[in-house]
Design goal:
The protein is mainly α. Helices cover 84% and strands 0% of the residues. The two termini are 16 Å apart. It comes from Flavobacterium fontis.
Length: 127
């Protein structure tokens, strides 16, 4: 493996999104209740279940691709899965950013930046 930094970015993304999707899958009812409360006064209040499902799917794809990308990068130096894991991580984070802006949670939206920076760096390094 020649790109240790890329490996650690992918590991960060894999942990982040696999843990988040795991929580949504195994605590769906609680997650949905929290999301419905969070978006109660937003324009998407009637689509919370659908949008949470879409976010879950995006996070799951991002986490799986990032995890496979870690293995691929370590084993043979290939970047394909890692690149797409980083891309889907960016997509998931942008979905969250839009949601937080719609909910008028500007502090939460600002905090997404902390995750978005390594995801974009991953896309750049792995492209």
């Amino acid at each position: 493996m020649t790109n240790t930094a890329s490996f650690f970015v992918l590991l960060f993304l894999a942990i982040t999104f696999l843990m988040s999707s795991h929580e949504k899958v195994f605590h769906w009812k609680t997650t949905l209740q929290g999301m419905q409360s969070y978006f109660a006064n937003s324009p998407v209040k009637n689509q919370v279940a659908l949008l949470t499902g879409i976010l879950l799917l995006t996070e799951l794809i991002a986490g799986i691709l990032a995890a496979i990308g870690c293995l691929q990068l370590y084993i043979n130096g290939e970047r394909t899965f890692g690149f797409w894991g980083a891309v889907f991580s960016c997509i998931a984070l942008l979905e969250m950013l839009v949601g937080q802006r719609l909910a008028k949670d500007y502090d939460g939206a600002r905090n997404i930046t902390l995750y978005f920076i390594p995801a974009v760096i991953g896309v750049y390094w792995l492209s």
